[in-house]
Queue: 3 jobs
Job 1
Amino acid sequence: MIPFAILSGKIKTKTDEKEIRLLELSPDYFTFRLLKEQAKKYAQQLSDAGQQGNVVLSFFQFQKRSYHEVILNCTRDVVKIALMPQKQMEGLVCEIRVDVKNEEYRIYTECFNKEYMNYIYLKLDETEADMSKALVGYPSEKEQTYSDTLKKQRAAWTQVPNEAKKSLAERVDGIELDNPAWYQAYLSKPLKDFISLYWESSGWIDIDLCKIAWRVPKYFYIGNAYCFHLFPKKTQLEAMLEKTWSDHIFPVCVFAPVEEKDLIKIEEILKLLSDWCQNKCVKTELVINDWGMAGLIRKKYPNQFLLTLGCLLSKQRRDTRMNYVNRNDNELSKEKSQVDAPFYRQYLAKHFNITRVSFQNSGIDQSFFTPDSMIGMTLHFPYFQMNTSGWCPLLAMLYRGSRGRQKAVDDCHCECMTYAFEYPDFLCMTGRYNSIFGYNDSIRIEKEGVRLVAGFLNAPLKNDSAKGTKL
């Protein structure tokens, strides 16, 4: 049976449409299999349907990395449709053979068979990396190039000079505090010392060049958008809220997707935030990455918080490895998400009171954002999320030897503060927390009003040393 991802088919008759899986393919015919009753039905319908009956085949073109549809008219292009003699599984399935006389079908069939056989030979004889190199130009010779520290790896990834980074740092409106190490660092240090430590720990820019960036940002993003276990404890959160208040900083609480078992904890946190807001006569901004969370807030705390749609719900994805399947940056920048639609933005504002949307610096154009777009925009840099697991692949690898052997975790000890998944330098990606992130520090902000937030997926430098934390 030919894999459905590279060759699919549909039968279209007067009354309905049916997907088929092809078994054999030649320039003169192809066969597919259906349940016995369905096979007799469609064989008869295709023979009788005349101009109304078509078979549509979608060929995957390995070189172009795209699909091409060949439409076969059952009257003009199909010579014969016949049920094949049953050999096995008698009474359950039947094979249908379709004899074809069509030049386009013949050309694409011969090309497909040649490319598919080449793929099979590579699969049998070569490693995965060598096969990818032969098929899509993947540079397998670079797979063994790793940096021994995160700082060196970022230097290998960087796309912009330090002076441009300095200008960008001066414009930052907020910073991410996304793990317990940063919560403790903020609570234990004076504000200016903490801001200095944050930028020094980033490894993103030379310390001497970024001293000008020691200004205090307006927003602190507290919490992790991907793992709920990294959200601060209640006492810690309350202390951070009070400290941001005294430091004249706007706290923004970031929530990860929530499991059913954590609803009680979430309700306690929301109650704490609601009481704090009422006490201070302010509205705190919450970033939500779960529609259930949005519904809970709408039901129990309407109009008490400023809601922002998180990166997991704005649904703009990019994978650094997509460069090796012939997708260039120009094509990527034209991709749209549902947020580009005005009616969707109206829906967010009307039903959930969402007034802002979070995006990441993945190179995708945010053309929807204008002064009259009815919604604000937050841009996180320099990392962008590529994939997130519901449970923790890091713990699965550490304790069970395989990323795939994931289980729910009730008592997390934050091993992600010490360990991370490392990838070859040329891929510009890293595995932190329960997610995989790509790196892109080349950023253009062409419109006023975009809130720029920096986050470096790291921990504070130990003892304020210049060596950083080894991952």
Job 2
Amino acid sequence: MATDGRTALLVERLADRYAFRTLLGEGGAGTVYEVENLSLGRLEALKILTNPFTDPDGQERFAVEARIAASLEHPHIVRIHAFGQDGGIPWYSMQLVDGPSLAVILDGGATLDGPMAAQVAVPVLEALAFSHAHGVIHRDIKPANILFDAAGTPFLADFGIAKAVENPMDTRTGHMLGTPAYVAPEQALGEAVDARSDLYSLGVTLYRALAGQLPFRSDQVLQTLLLRLQEDPPSLAAACPGLHPALAAVIMRSMARDRNRRWAGAAEMREAFLAACAEAGMAWNRPLAVAGDFPLRRRSLPEVAPTADLPRAKGRPWWILGLAAAAAAAALMPFLRAPKAPPRAEAPRTAPAPAAAPPEPEPRPRARPAAAEVLPRRPVTYPRLLGDGLAPAPAGECAGLSVGAALVVGEDGLVKSCRILSDVKPACAQAARAVALKYRFSPALDAQGRPVEASVAIAVDFQEAR
């Protein structure tokens, strides 16, 4: 059982309460172990959070959040048994769920059909309705946080206790709360979240489970976040032709960019799900057959995936500033668009066979443009930086900064324009722009494999002062 020095110290301090048995997962958010509660003789999961307390109020924030989360007693919420901190290191123990996470199922190449998605969504929505009614927003709904026991019953895990130990004034790190691929637009902008933010993340989770892919895809974190601010998600009905339209509509509404256009709450979305299931004639109240349909492996907690480490400038993190600037300047910085298709010529009609006084053909109604006739509005690939980039910008007063920038990359891979997104001194912005304009990229490609002009987000890193 490998541990770092800090974790090893905590394990030693907890040795009179817990016997540490197995390492279940580790990553940017923390490390999870299967433990035995020595006083109760019960197997539990114990999570040691990565971030130590960084301010005098950290312990109190953590205690408040942990007490609230521990008060959530619901059949589909993983129960928190105990929590504490030793040497400033926060930890908590919880119910051990003996089955795979939804992430394990999806990462194995499986997708869910409509009934399976309903069997996951309805219990999770019940759990969210309960937690929201108690004032608790999850903040990180994703496949890794939906667990199944051996019977296939879903549980929602990992409520936002980690939020309590994140110092909002600490600008030395860029850990983003929530997973970029699943967070709501307002969460990506650093705005206040509410119940509708959780519904957005659940919608993205269900989209991936049904379609086998995320609605917004990019290998760059900021690009992924910018896409959801600029564009509506692609149609789930088009991605899953066999899915009942009513079910697709419920999920698509949960992913509206404007939170006021989403479902008002988890209870309302649950009722809409049940109505869609009734319309489709599908059952939703059977456990997912994980033991028979998917590989079952012991899992207590969602696999702890590293959070996105994004560099911050002084003040608010640059990715929040960048997203806000991109949202405000959408008209000036349109996201990449494929060239519009020329109008399609009307297919020649077959003349009717000669006959006496053939009837005049009725005028054809103006047909709606078929979805297949519209070229994709997004490219298939995004610009990629060639090589390792240029030498870092000179340091000076900008030493140690990472400056976010949005570039317009032409079809030839050359940078056509640069807009600085970070709130930095003019001299630092000018130096970063000068370097960024010299970058070279492989261009974005549209669905036909043709180069297209595109926007891409980057960070220009200044050297540390020596």
Job 3
Amino acid sequence: MMASLIAVGGAIIAAVIGAWAVLYARRPRRADVEAVDAMSVDVGRRHDLDVVRRHDEDARALAAELLAAREQAAREQAAAHPAPHAQPARATSSSGEGPRVEPVDISVPERQSRWMDPPVVDLKLLNRGGESAVLTKMVVEVLWARRITAFGDLLPYVDTSGGVWLPPSATYDVELPVPEKAHGARVTVGISQVIGPGEADRFQVRVNTEIPPGSGYLHETPGATSLYLLRLHVVYNADSRQVPFRPLAVACPGNLLQVPTKAAIEKRIAEFRAKVAELRRAIDQEISARGMQPPDWIAKPPRSPRDLPADLATLRRGRGVNSNFWDPQGAIKRFLDDAEQICREISQLPPDLPDGLDRAVAMARTTLGQLPALRRATS
């Protein structure tokens, strides 16, 4: 399968270095929590689908590097532009000014998750104040949601198979409405975290989505991927100050958005044809062993079990053949129809979405242009 969720880089760091340089010339007096990172974890290579990996780093190392970069920038700026009769840089504030909380996106990590797992959002925060900060709740705001058809397997039978880093100090769960009802929703989750002065913390949020009644599945790929664009806000201390994170995209389940590509489609069709041929050979061998004439799979192929001798063990060994086996060419056509539908759904996503969704749109449009030739080649 092909999953395309690409991390947004930390290009905004340089833009905020100068603005924050003077804040580190003094020792803060109160808790000041900074959003070091908000990230949608996973993804790696899964089956025949291309993905872009994200890299995870230790939250404490990230914080240290960020502080060092800002201090170095402040020194360079002071050396390049000395002010006449300048006094040592100090932040000015009124006696009643509280801490300022400013989010910074640094990186999106690499993680692996199983296909049916809910996606996990990984949050890292830094308390750059002088007092402990108490995190009390988190608000998950749904900016946008869409349901995308899943790119399923093409099989001739029923499949029943079923580094140093800062470990998360806690994991919380949030349940989002189904995409059709999710736009504009705000879900509040109670949390309990304490971050000491100058310390970093990390916790995770599993993103679950409602399962409509009667749509439960077992030993099969879900029929659709629920895609969400979220903004998370962490609330801390008694005065309910907020730390807003950047918008990020997640997909339920598995945090995988499946984008069919020409190579993936061709590979699945080739594997499907090989499996069909293997089953046909096994049936021929069993029928021949009974002293009977095997069927003509080209001129007059069997269309159902009724066209073959009864009680063939080949059709009963652990998994029964499905309708794809009896009509391989029709199965390939339906498979291509599904791939086209998925690509059209993805190609119609809104522009400028984060986490690689813009690339997913481009890939889907490329595949749409290649599908006519694929249909001719497989007909």
